[in-house]
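A quick aside before the break. I want you to see a complete sequence-to-structure record at least once, exactly as it would be stored in a machine-readable document. Don't worry about memorizing anything.
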Amino acid sequence: MYADHTIKNRSLLKRFSHSRRFELTLRLLAVARNDKVLDYGTGDGYMLIQMLSATPQPQRVVGYEPLESSYQELQQTISKMSTDRVDITDDLNRFDSQEFDKVCCLEVLEHLTEENQRNVLCTISYVLNDHGFAVISVPIEIGVSGLLKNFARWILRQQHRNATAVNILKSFLGLKIDRGNQPFILSHIGFDYRDLEKVFASVGFEIKNKVYSPLKGFGGFFNSQVFFVLEKTERSGR
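That is the input. The structure line, written in tokens, reads:
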């Protein structure tokens, strides 16, 4: 199950990191009562539960999950909830342009090629209204943070694919690593969040805020994730 890799991971550090990730997402989203929110790549639906447990509750929350195995798990999660504020789907074509006030996309883009990252961000831009914003989070897999993560994975025997000594050294130094061109890249090895910032600009998003997690004041040095708050560069009313 997805939770076994995140909030229920046997590593105390990983559990802490992922718990902080969801807390920070809620703070950055600042959900209001009339908001319609999309969670793009919602996994098992944990973030949906957090949004519906917050005060105030959003008017509507939609969880989109394209992976069949994760979608089946998501359906089980939602079946236990007694509310009409939440909806789930594996098809984004059902939504209209500018339908959502806010969109969150957590730990998704690191699994995609640059072309597919651009496709996802274009879709998010399409469904996001002109006065809304998106919260994107991705892992930090370079520098000291990347080195410490790979060491922890080795200790826990949770190594990622292609975690060779050469690639780990390249990640530490921030050097380019060929990640292949498969539709879904399971391993984090070779992902560099700095490249993603260029993709944001290429599809018409502007970075309004950039926050590192879980430790304040350390930037990307010891932290495991980075969050971006994005707005469209062309927004009506400006």
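Two observations worth writing down. The chain has one domain: 2-139+190-232. The beta strands are 36-40, 60-64, 86-89, 100-106, 128-139, 205-213, 225-232. We'll return to this after the break.
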